[in-house]
Design brief:
35% of the residues lie in helices and 25% in strands. The chain has 11 helices and 13 strands. Strands 5-4-1-6-11-8-12-10-9 form a 9-stranded mixed beta sheet. The protein has a two-stranded antiparallel sheet with strand order 2-3. A two-stranded antiparallel ribbon has the order 7-13. α3 runs antiparallel to α4. The chain is globular, with a radius of gyration of 19 Å. The chain binds 1-O-phosphono-alpha-D-glucopyranose (G1P).
Length: 285
């Protein structure tokens, strides 16, 4: 019942960060001292996943290079006696087994997940949308894996959102099974407020049944003209249990400039040395 593989859709263009993302993958933007993608990979590993599957695109080579060995750099660091840094670089490349699959056309999140079918088709797998960065005691994917291990079926992370934010997310309908756990029976991608079945929004963590691929294969384009994962999970929920779990922790939407900046400030405040830097800037303003 454990979840060993985790899929990361990272082919998106990151237009909200242009012009930076003209040349840099948005997943490589720094969050204090590591790229955004690194937080997601660490979360997957801490949640028990061994295999990482990145669904990537032609502008995302920097992600592959980041997790690979860099012999030239390592050699220079070693010769200069910077051994701590040298070992740190090697550890990054040994963090995880990572596979890369190209999503050749930007057809949506559902299509990105479908690209992972060759490696994920035989077992339950995790999905992490790395733009959503969570800070808290227990990794959010691990919270979902625990529910999957206890109740079976697929699981999505939920957050109660304000009315004004409903149209940005996949919104679920369901019955509360236990405090904080819903049996999901419907979901709508980016609904108007008047069409939203609740105020519970899917945040970027999923444990999915391999049966999802059956539905993704036939899924027509939905909201925004894209093949939506939410639409396929709605179909899945008609045949298998799908649970919605209100996660514990704090989320930052690092796919937006405001969210990315907030995450940097929060993580700096959580760091003993950097906290003082942030506090001093605020004091002097
Ligand atoms: C995606 C999903 C949406 C989910 C959101 C969470 O949307 O399609 O259901 O609520 O992630 O961040 P996107 O942010 O890619 O538009």
């Amino acid at each position: 019942m454990t979840v060993k593989k985790c899929l990361f859709p990272v082919a998106g263009l990151g237009t909200r960060f242009l012009p930076v993302t003209k040349e840099i993958a948005k997943e490589m933007l720094p969050l204090v001292n590591r790229p955004i993608i690194s937080y997601g990979v660490e979360e997957a590993l801490a949640s028990g996943c061994d295999d990482i599957v990145m669904i990537t695109g032609r502008t995302k080579r920097s992600i592959e290079n980041y997790f690979d060995r860099s012999f030239e750099l390592e050699d220079i660091l070693k010769r200069r006696g910077k051994l701590e840094l040298y070992y740190k670089m090697i550890r990054i490349s040994e963090m995880a087994e990572i596979m890369y699959i190209r999503q050749r056309e930007p057809l949506g999140l559902g299509h990105a997940v479908l690209c992972g079918e060759p490696v994920c088709k035989d077992e339950y797998f995790g999905v992490i949308l790395p733009d959503d960065v969570f800070v808290g005691e227990e990794p959010v994917l691990s919270q979902l894996v625990k529910v999957h291990e206890r109740l079976g079926g697929s699981v999505v992370a939920l957050e109660h959102v304000e009315d004004k934010d409903v149209s940005r997310y996949g919104i679920v309908a369901g019955e509360e099974f236990e405090p904080g756990i819903f049996r999901v029976n419907d979901m709508v991608e980016k609904p108007r407020l008047s069409d939203a079945p609740s105020r519970y929004a899917i945040m970027g963590r999923y444990v999915l049944s391999p049966e999802i691929f059956t539905f993704l294969h036939t899924q027509q384009a939905g909201a925004g003209g894209e093949i939506q994962l939410t639409d396929a999970i709605r179909e899945l929920a008609k045949t298998e249990p799908v649970w919605g779990v209100v996660y514990h922790g704090r989320r930052f939407d690092c796919g937006t400039q405001k969210g990315w900046l907030s995450a940097n400030i929060q993580l700096a405040l959580d760091d003993d040395e950097l906290r003082e830097v942030v506090m001093n800037i605020i004091k002097n303003n």
